[in-house]
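Exercise: predict the fold of this chain.
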Amino acid sequence: MNQERKNLLAQLKTNDLKANVPSISEENAAFLHNLILERGFQSALEIGTAHGYSTIWLADALEQNDGHLTTIEHSPPSFNQAKVNIYRAKLEQSISQHLGRAQTVIAKALPEDENYNFIFIDGIKKSTLEFFELASPRLKKGGMIVVDDVIKFKIKMKSFYAYLNQQTAWHYEIKKLDTDDGILLIERI
């Protein structure tokens, strides 16, 4: 990642903290960035753009792999702020932004044959199971799904955890990389 993007990300993180905008921790973002690079992932779907902090981290790695990120945000003000931040990061060619509910965008706006190596779910926690059920059929073989904030919001994700514990098609692991929370890494068995 170039220094200009690093500086922008530091500024965005500071602004998000001041404005109480939930964004992924720097530790988790750096982990996902490296994961995408190491695995050579070239296509990703992000559910929950917010102001674009995680989007820039993911897209930077995908750009280095000659890949592309599709991101979905339901809040018009957040979508518009992310658009500005993506432009400032000079990543608009590597990112397709969609405004709307992820449930609607995935079902109606994304091409049916568009599949992904990497899916990042960081939307409304009570809808995590619904996001997973809609997005997981689009995961390419050998790909990975990651869910953010899985410890502190576990109660809001009760149905998702119940689903994971009752199925046999997915292997999952929680990684606690920062002091704030953890991420859930999910792969098809």
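Check your answer against the key: The mean pLDDT is 93.
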